[in-house]
Amino acid sequence: MSQWLPPRRESLLQRLNSLLRDLVSLYTPSGEERKAKEIFSRLSKETGMPLFETETGSFILGGGKVLLASHLDTVPGFIEVRGGDGWLEGRGAVDAKGPLTAMIVAGAMAWAEGKKVTVAALADEENKSAGARELIRSGAKFDHVIIGEPTGTSGIAIEYRGLIHLDIRCQSRAEHSSSSKSNLIAEMCERILKIYSAPDSYLGPTITPTIFRAGEYINVSPSSAYTHLDIRYGRGMDEGEIIKKVKETFTSCEVEVKDHVPPVAVSPNEPAVKAIMRGLLVNNIKPRLIRKTGTSDMNILAQLTRSIVTYGPGDSTMEHTESEKITLEELYIAASTYKYAVDVLCRS
User: Is 73 a catalytic residue?
Assistant: First the structure.
């Protein structure tokens, strides 16, 4: 009998805790996902699930038309791993090694029962989603996709906003700081403030400067300045108009679109959504349909099928913060919900 057949609650909690600690203890910012190869090789041997390592550094376990996909990379900034009675803290515990852990365990339990399921630990989600894009290019076919991102114990995300990444570079004449009649930093800041838009509605757009660089010497006005704009917007908005507004604000500057991912939304009646909802109800949790303000691999992997949904353990307000903390109870509920959903979707 396989050790991965659905165990008792305490055994499952121990398995979740051990795997999450292993993954979180390994610091894997975007580009360093291959550090986890030993962990996934061990998992493949233990579960009997075939392992495939991709060119981008993603790891694919198993094989089947139901896909459980989360991401292995994190934002930069190591957080010391700490744990207590029923909780664990560290970089990626919430975004998204917690959801990934629950997916691996759920997928392994389903595989032990003979169900054909694929579990993907995708690379580069926090950067340009190279792992998800690679999966699309590979021609892989899936009937149902569940994305693992923190949505809270009861949240089920059926909509994400779109993303535009813009690089802006401006030039000026360098002068002595004591006599310069203009200053590129001040001019750039003034332009940024004209278009800056903090989150106040779901549709947006939210236009946020995330990087700013300027200046060469302490007593010389800057000859060049650079800023990066992270733009999120909801369905129904015209991305071309958003870009046009930025270009009109930064006339005489170079404005380059570095990335664009359109918004995504699915019907609550899609099989993957209904399967997660039923899984939560079985766990005595009332599901909530939510819209996420960010962007995820769901925006890209929606090209595979309309039966796609995002669900995962963890408080999303802890994403990208210095305090990513998750409880074993959250992981247990997520693993149980994923397993129920896989059972339902494999039968369908």
Answer: yes
pLDDT digits (tens, 9 = 90+) for 285-340: 999 999 999 999 999 999 999 999 999 999 999 999 999 999 999 999 999 999 99
Q: Are 166 and 196 in contact (CB under 8 A)?
A: no
Active site residue 167: no
What is the radius of gyration, based on Cα positions, of the chain?
22
- Residue 42 DSSP SS3: helix
- Residue 205: closest CA among 125, 77, 293: 293
List the catalytic residue out of 33, 89, 124, 125: 125
User: What are 201's two structure tokens?
Assistant: 């509605």
Per the CB < 8 A criterion, the answer to whether 307 and 66 are in contact is no
Helices (H), the chain: 9-25, 37-47, 97-112, 130-137, 184-195, 239-249, 271-282, 297-301, 328-347
| Close Cβ partners of 158 (under 8 Å, ≥ 6 residues apart) | 265, 266, 267, 268, 273, 289, 290, 291, 309, 310
Q: Which domains, from first to last, does the chain contain? A: 9-160+263-347 (3.40.630.10), 162-261 (3.30.70.360)
Quote the CA–CA distance of 59 and 14 in Å, as a whole number.
23
Output helix, strand, coil percentages for the chain, rounded to the nearest 5: 35, 25, 40
Contact criterion met (CB below 8 Å) for 145 and 304: yes
